[in-house]
Specification:
Blueprint lengths: L14 H13 L3 E6 L4 E4 L1 H7 L3 H4 L4 H4 L4 H13 L3 E3 L4 E4 L2 E13 L5 E10 L1 H47 L7 H25 L7 E3 L1 H15 L4 E7 L7 E3 L1 H19 L2 E18 L2 E12 L6 H4 L17 H11 L3 E7 L3 E9 L3
Parallel strand pairs: 8-10
Antiparallel strand pairs: 1-2, 1-6, 3-5, 4-5, 5-6, 7-9, 10-11, 11-13, 12-13
The structure holds adenosine-5'-triphosphate and magnesium ion.
Length: 372
């Protein structure tokens, strides 16, 4: 491809200047859409195609109001800028419903002005802020969990001692009973159930005051492979297929192996639970080339592990609650699994998110930095 130089403005023929500007606009990472005074779209760069889901061919020559008839906030901004010639920004309220998904965007609408000051249209710049919204949600979630965690830990401490007393008394009682006594059935239930509460309390205390990370180089694929093998055995007799799509280029990552095992075991168990008798579970790993986390002014590349199932999915109304301690829709679930997962990922400075399509399945994505 020929190298295009900035044209010599003085001797420019007009055509090369146009090419040059087109390349500049196409290279801008934010979406740019230009609308003339009649509301007809006259320019649309590749980033705008990506954000809106409309191709340049669909957009050019189309009436903005028709193409974006659903996006009332966006429409109001364009109309107002064309009418008044003022610049309007909105980084909070605008969404674009592209390809079935609602994408939050930060928008600025500038007037398109001639040197004479005549207003001949509007320039829209659109920035996809899905990633920022996800981070904000993760921070809110972490805040909520830490408050709940502190509360739960206080409660756990209070319950631990009397529980020990109950278990001890039940054991004494059992010893007093003859081997044939029918009452033994009751003492056994008492002991078993106090042990169950004790397990929950230990998990809760762990959650509130974690022991800190024991970092070693971890072979992620071995950890995932081992869990899958065990779960396959546990699900024998059910028609569940397990598949793994691992990116072989992923090196060992610095992490706490025990905690990562717990994290992925929880996610994979949840997927297996959700699928019931038949289903397909897929675990995928890849390196995210464009996703970096800043840590102490250092950036770290991330690996993504996805655990996807084709089970019933999670209803929209439950999606917000699944990370909350004790939220469970299972008769024997404690509802601590995902709270623990969230905590483990946060401690590794990663991110966890869920996408669910009710009726079709659920996908949990864990992002972990390659180094800590
Ligand atoms: N893959 C999934 N598909 C459908 N629903 C899910 C999935 N994963 C989690 N859930 C929902 O989220 C809830 C909370 O999950 P979480 O792991 O925290 O608790 P649990 O599995 O119910 O109990 P446990 O503490 O034993 O893990 C589940 O009860 C279930 O309703
Ligand atoms: Mg669980």
């Amino acid at each position: 491809m020929p190298i295009i130089q900035p044209p010599d403005m003085a001797n420019d023929t007009g055509r090369s200047l146009g090419d040059y500007y087109a390349i500049v606009i196409d290279s801008v990472g934010d979406g740019v859409i230009v609308v003339d005074r009649e509301g007809v779209i006259t320019l649309c760069n590749p980033a705008a195609e990506e954000i809106t889901g409309f191709s340049r061919r669909q957009a050019l020559g189309a009436v903005f109001e028709k193409l974006f008839s659903q996006e009332t906030t966006l429409l109001e901004m364009v109309i107002k800028t064309i009418r008044t010639g003022i610049t309007i920004s909105d980084h909070e309220n605008v969404v674009v419903r592209s390809t079935g998904k609602v994408k939050p965007v930060a928008v600025t609408c500038y007037p398109l002005m001639l040197a004479s000051g005549e207003n001949i249209g509007a320039i829209l710049t659109l920035k996809d802020i899905t990633y920022i919204r996800e981070l904000e949600a993760a921070v809110r979630q972490a805040d909520r969990l830490s408050t709940l965690g502190t509360l739960a830990a206080g409660l756990a401490h209070e319950v631990k001692n009397p529980l020990g007393g109950i278990k001890g008394a039940a054991q004494l009682l059992e010893r007093e009973l003859t081997r044939e006594s029918d009452l033994r059935e009751y003492t056994r239930v008492m002991i078993r159930e106090t042990e169950r509460i004790d397990h929950i309390i230990r998990e809760l205390l762990d959650l509130a005051s974690p022991r800190g990370l024991r970092l070693t180089p971890v072979n992620l694929h071995r950890v995932l492979g081992d869990i899958l093998l065990l779960q396959k055995q546990a699900a024998a007799g059910r028609d569940i297929s397990f598949s793994k799509q691992f990116d072989p280029s992923i090196p060992d990552i610095m992490a706490d192996e025990e905690m990562l095992t717990r994290l992925f075991l929880n996610l994979i168990r949840n997927a297996v639970d959700a699928m019931g008798e038949t289903g397909q579970l897929t675990v995928t790993s890849r390196v995210m080339s464009d996703y970096r986390m800043t840590q102490n002014e250092r950036q770290s590349r991330m690996v993504a592990v996805e655990v996807a199932d084709d089970g019933p999915g999670i209803p929209q109304k439950d999606l917000e609650n699944i990370w909350t301690p004790f939220f469970s829709t299972k008769s024997s679930g404690t509802g601590l699994g995902l709270t623990i997962c969230h905590k483990i990922v946060a401690e590794h400075r990663g991110m966890i998110k869920v996408e669910s399509d009710p009726g079709h399945g659920t996908k949990f994505t864990v992002l972990l930095p390659l180094v800590q």
